[in-house]
Amino acid sequence: MGRRFNRVLARLRRDFQLSIITLMGFFGVLGITPYAVYRFSQGNYPVAIADTVIVLSTIFAVAYAWRTGDTRKPGLCLVVIESLCATLIAIKLGINGLFWIYPLILLNFFMVTPLIALLATVAVLVMLVAYASVMPGTVFESHYQMLSFIVTVMMASILSFIFAQRAHYQRKQLQSWATRDPLTGARNRRVMDQELKIAVANQRRHNISSAVLVIDMDHFKQVNDRFGHQVGDQVLVSFVQLTNRCIRHEDRLFRFGGEEFLLLLCNTNEKGLRAAAQQLQAQISAHLKSPGGPVTVSMGGAVLYANERWQDWLERADQQLYEAKRAGRNRIHIDTYQVAETAKTA
Ligand SMILES: Nc1nc2c(ncn2[C@@H]2O[C@H](COP(=O)(O)OP(=O)(O)OP(=O)(O)O)[C@@H](O)[C@H]2O)c(=O)[nH]1
């Protein structure tokens, strides 16, 4: 029980959007349920049903987010459903219903991207004003009240939009600082460990094979010594740009050490690994250069075995890199399961 609770807390701490959707859901259900009960007791069924739909859809959205880890779809659904219900409630209750539009604005900006939230709020405003124009005296008691409502809603929306945009940008920047190498933009070592663990889990649960390629610049010290550190840096940056252009969208490049990189290829067997390595090497031979001429790389690769620990998998690829270096550099060495088995039995 205690461990389960700790796991829930850890997940909430790790996943910002999940914690937001949970918090909003909690307060939404807590705040609206008494009103739903009250409206039913008063016989105001359209509003009672709208309140109930809000409560149930909120519970469903939070449960969906927890089960799947996807917060985008339930967030969007909530924004659409709650905007429609809040509009209906405001139409039915007039000024008493209009108060609910303000928490709705906040909810929108917490749940979806700032632009979608702004559009949703404007849509609610347009629906209310259009209805009030067709049926005067239903939603607003006077033109002055309608104008005040439009101005205050727009002010609240625009300020929320600016704040949300800024928070969105800062979160992205923080995420980038925490996960990317500042020089090359490749993913860093911390993310690498996590992604390798995910690949191992995918192998165990879904039998999806993954492969790694450890790539190391050849004689890179000479580049630094002859042309300076800045030129060395530029070669590293060019290498990452070149590699990112060559690999598939789902593959991941990490900066493993100084001039050592790791390429994680998902859903790849030994044949695929070899083909990817050869293609990358051809591109590097053709395009990666320092002022002293072409820069070559050595590569060591390994496909993940069933039930293998990620550290052992990495160790095998590293061993192959070592062999490639020892064999003269500018070459690819791939660890083969069959060969390893044969060698053991021989
Ligand atoms: N410019 C630059 N150089 C780096 C960076 N990180 C590591 N290096 C350099 O990479 C070089 C690595 O040298 P070695 O480990 O001797 O390897 P090497 O010269 O490539 O030789 P082999 O790997 O055996 O082919 C060192 O000179 C490091 O200073 C970096 O961020 N920028």
TrEMBL record:
Q: Where are the transmembrane segments?
A: 20-38, 44-64, 76-95, 101-134, 146-164
E.C. number: 2.7.7.65
Instruction: Give the matching SMART domains.
Output: GGDEF (SM00267)
Q: Which UniProt keywords apply?
A: Membrane, Transmembrane, Transmembrane helix
Key word Lyase present: no
Q: Where is the protein situated, by its record's location annotation?
A: Cell inner membrane
Picking any one GO biological process from the record gives: negative regulation of bacterial-type flagellum-dependent cell motility
Kindly give the Gene3D superfamilies that the UniProt entry links to this protein. 3.30.70.270
List, alphabetically, the Pfam families matched. GGDEF
| PROSITE patterns in the record | GGDEF
Where is the GGDEF domain positioned along the sequence?
208-337
GO cellular component labels? plasma membrane
Q: Which SUPFAM superfamilies match?
A: Nucleotide cyclase
Q: Which transformation does this protein catalyse, written as a reaction?
A: 2 GTP = 3',3'-c-di-GMP + 2 diphosphate
Q: Which PANTHER family does this UniProt record tie to the protein?
A: DIGUANYLATE CYCLASE DGCM-RELATED, REGULATORY COMPONENTS OF SENSORY TRANSDUCTION SYSTEM
**What name does UniProt use for this protein?**
diguanylate cyclase
